[in-house]
Amino acid sequence: MALRAFSTVTPVTSVTRVTRRFKLAAAATVAVAAIGGGVIGTMPVLGNHDVVPVATTLDASSMYNDAQKKFAAGDVAGGLAALKQVVSMAPADAEAIALQAIWSDQLGDSSGVQGALSKLSMMNPQLATIARNIISGVEAAAKIVPDTTPKTVAGRPTIVILGYGLNGNGKMAPELVNRVRAGKAQAEVSTTAPIVVTGGAPKSGVTEASAMQKWLVDNGVDASRITTEDKSGSTVANAQNTAAILQRTGVRDIILITSPNHIRRAAADFAATGLRVVGTLTTSTELSRYAATLPKERQTGIRVEATRTAKIPVSRQPGALPQNLPDAGPGLIPEIGGKLLELLGTGSSK
Fold first, then answer.
1. What is the C-alpha separation between 212 and 180, in angstroms, rounded?
2. Would you say 149 and 184 are in contact if contact means Cβ atoms under 8 Å apart?
3. Largest CA distance in the chain
4. Bridge-partner residues for 2, per DSSP?
5. How far is CA 250 from the centre of its chain?
6. What residues contact residue 226 under an 8 Å CB cut-off, 6+ apart?
């Protein structure tokens, strides 16, 4: 844990001008600690010597990075211990608190999940929703048993067919053909559902999405139903880019089509974007290997990737302030923070 210390106290006449963001960050940190009952140290008492605190900054970035490395390595308890230190240093760090909720769920710690989500809902409601989406998405994904039979799905879902690497000559590999065949079968059941084919990684100038679109049209699917997402090179990007496309149309529900060995990871990633996976269909490739649901101890990999899909930072620069502090607009944190700044004698918040 790196410690960067500036002068603890200094005369008012020599206080260096502090940026508005740093002061709001400090105020928010104190305010959230007060609300959450956290202890961040003893506040200096202003008295006859007219002194104010300038800054004593503990660098929480290295601990945040350590936590993320531990999660990636499967050391969930170690990662949560590191996050506990992060939050003790920076009680307003919403991303760290979101990770506490997400990874407490991995350990089955319901009180830890709810405690983190309660704080997060007050500080950053949008990030609290993302954390809930990841938690519920991983849980639902782990229960998926691959199935090759198309089914009727209520509502207005979109069929999403995930790509697979093309051969060097731009032709579809056999497993990608299997995926688009499964997608076509679902399209014949869900006759009004739009279709998104997703995958970039061009070979010989052809992307996975364009190859999939051509196959579907050649095999009788109306081209007007098909949208191509041809920029992504990973499942994470598949989910992020597809979510951006569907958000513009107001669609949230999807039927996800891919291979048995990919469906759970993909479903967790898409859930992390806020999309709802209301149906799945897979190819028959190695189907029997994935007949059992995914136990808790084997969910760490899809949980890690879901946090990446949600764009929760993998790492931070040393010494960096969190970029997810409470909004400086109307609200409880700025109001309390402003009063604290006045008490501390730091003057205007500009």
1. 7
2. no
3. 85
4. 59
5. 20
6. 194, 195, 196, 197, 213, 216, 217
Give the integer Cα–Cα distance in Å for 133 and 90: 24
Q: Ramachandran region of residue 211, left (φ > 0), alpha (ψ -120 to 50) or beta?
A: alpha
Q: Within its chain, how far is the Cα of 189 from the centroid?
A: 32
Among the residues of the chain, which ranges form H helices?
Answer: 20-36, 61-72, 76-89, 94-106, 110-123, 125-142, 174-189, 208-218, 235-249, 263-272, 300-309, 332-344
What is the token pair recorded at 3? Answer: 């410690």
pLDDT for the residue 222: 97
Do 83 and 67 touch, CB atoms closer than 8 A? yes
The rounded distance, in Å, linking the Cα atoms of 11 and 52 is 7
CB burial of residue 243 (10 Å; 0-12, 13-18, 19+): buried
Other beta carbons within 10 Å of 344: 17
Amino acid at 273: T
Q: Going edge to edge, which strands form the sheet with 226-229?
A: 226-229, 195-198, 158-162, 253-258, 276-282
Q: What is the pLDDT of residues 8-24, one digit of tens each?
A: 333 333 334 434 444 44
pLDDT tens figures, 45-91: 444 444 443 333 358 999 999 999 999 999 999 999 999 999 999 99
User: Which residues have C-beta within 8 Å of that of residue 259, sequence separation ≥ 6?
Assistant: 164, 175, 178, 179, 282, 283, 285
Determine the residue type at 264: R
Give the 3-state DSSP-derived string for 173-203, with helices as H, strands as E and coil as C. Answer: CHHHHHHHHHHHHHHHHCCCCCEEEECCCCE
CA dist., res. 178 & res. 212, Å (int): 11
Q: What is the pLDDT of residue 46?
A: 43
CB distance 51 to 8 below 8 Å? no
The model's confidence at residue 317, banded by pLDDT at 50, 70 and 90, is: confident
- The domains of the chain, with CATH numbers, are 1-134+314-350 (1.25.40.10), 158-292 (3.40.50.620)
| Cα separations in angstroms, 161 against 134, 158, 164, 186, 201 | 21, 10, 10, 10, 15
- Please give the structure tokens belonging to residue 186: 């679902």
